[in-house]
Design goal:
With 163 residues, this protein is mainly α. It has two helices and no strands. Helix 1 packs antiparallel against helix 2. Keywords: Coiled coil.
């Protein structure tokens, strides 16, 4: 949008400059005509007055074109400054995005490391738990075996006493 406005302003300046050159050419032609008329002393005072009036009108028009050119140049300068500020803001946002991305990558890496540590701890706890479960089963079996042996021994004593 800013570039389009700059292009449009540049086109207007070029048009104004072309008109300016055309008027300068016309002024030169008129000057030559006036000089020629004065040298020949053939022109009447009304023609000189008319040429003078045209010169004033063309001078006024030239002045208006110069004013318009100055205004357009000021607009272009202002728009260039705006564009520069927008570019600076855009670059700041890009830098901020780069910083945030680096921070996110570091956090992500930290989280992944922490997850890995927790997984390792969990695996260790699971292995320890399974080992304790096997020991408990082994002790249960030993206890059942011991109870069976005592029960059998107790039955033998009772039978022996009864007999």
């Amino acid at each position: 949008n800013v570039l389009f406005s700059l292009d449009e302003a540049n086109e207007k300046i070029q048009e104004v400059e072309q008109k300016n050159r055309d008027f300068m050419d016309k002024i030169e032609v008129l000057k030559e005509g006036i000089v020629s008329v004065s040298q020949k002393k053939c022109a009447s005072e009304s023609k000189v007055a008319k040429a003078s009036k045209q010169m004033r009108e063309k001078g006024d028009m030239f002045e208006k074109l110069e004013d318009e050119k100055v205004k357009l140049e000021e607009q272009i300068k202002w728009k260039n400054e705006q564009f520069k500020h927008l570019e600076e803001a855009h670059e700041k946002l890009r830098d901020n995005l780069r910083v945030k991305k680096k921070e996110w990558d570091m956090e992500k890496s930290s989280f992944l490391d922490e997850i890995s540590i927790l997984e390792t701890k969990l695996d260790s706890q699971i292995t320890l738990s399974e080992d304790l479960q096997r020991r408990l089963e082994s002790w249960k079996q030993a206890l059942v075996h011991e109870q069976n042996q005592r029960s059998l021994g107790f039955k033998k004593i009772v039978i022996h006493l009864l007999l």
